[in-house]
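FW: tagging you since you asked about this chain on Friday. Here's the raw sequence from the shared folder, copied in full. Didn't touch anything.
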Amino acid sequence: METSQTIGKISEALAKAQGAMKPATMDAENPYFKSKYATLAAIMEVARPALSANGIAVIQGISTDGDPVRVSLVTMLVHASGEWISSKLSAAPAKADIQGLGAVCSYLRRYALASMIGAVADQDDDGNAAAGKTAPGKSIDKTIEKQKLTVVRQEPDKQVNQVQAQTLIQSQPQDQEQSVVQNQISGRVAMIKEIFKLSAAIGQTPLEMKAMIGKVIGLDRPIRESSEIPNAKIEQVLEAFRQEYLKHVPAVQEVAA
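HL: got it, structure written out here
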């Protein structure tokens, strides 16, 4: 994630916009996992009025590079003051044709926008084609297939156990891993946004904020961008900024008085 030199005004505007946003309607069904999700149009429907009312515009630019091709999306939130916040997200489509590129672009745009503005997380996504995933039951592991061929030769009790085990394996939700990753990303983005807000509240410049983060995570220099913060230390960084903010609270109250 990258930002303009100052982010005080856009942070305040984004906080107001988030307070006005309602949860996006899950208006589409994933044909692979039979679960519902909110489309890009549904997210924009609840986000655009709140963002526009607070002077924030959304810009998303797509580029491709590499062989095999990789799609990159840069999402920018631009405030009327000139301040901005941007984030880059990349993925490789399963097939380098127009359908594969279109699927991964839709996936990136929706997830990047939802993460940047703090929209409610989807149950699932329509990026399975981009990830090369198939619906449950369409593809069976060869080991399980062999077990099916040999199960008739086993004793009755063992046969029942084998069938139960196989049924359990095939019935497990295929999108659990994806949901975990999505929740981790959303949680990280939320913590980084809080760090930015705390830094602005105590009057730090972007360079001072980056230097403090670098010191907390053990670097001998300021960080260049937020992606340098390890997931294992993001909570430690947030706690450091909270403690620093608490030190400034008396001074802030005194000035206000």
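FW: Confidence is low (pLDDT under 50) at residues 148-154, 251-257.
HL: agreed, and The chain is about 55% helix and 15% strand.
FW: great, closing this out.
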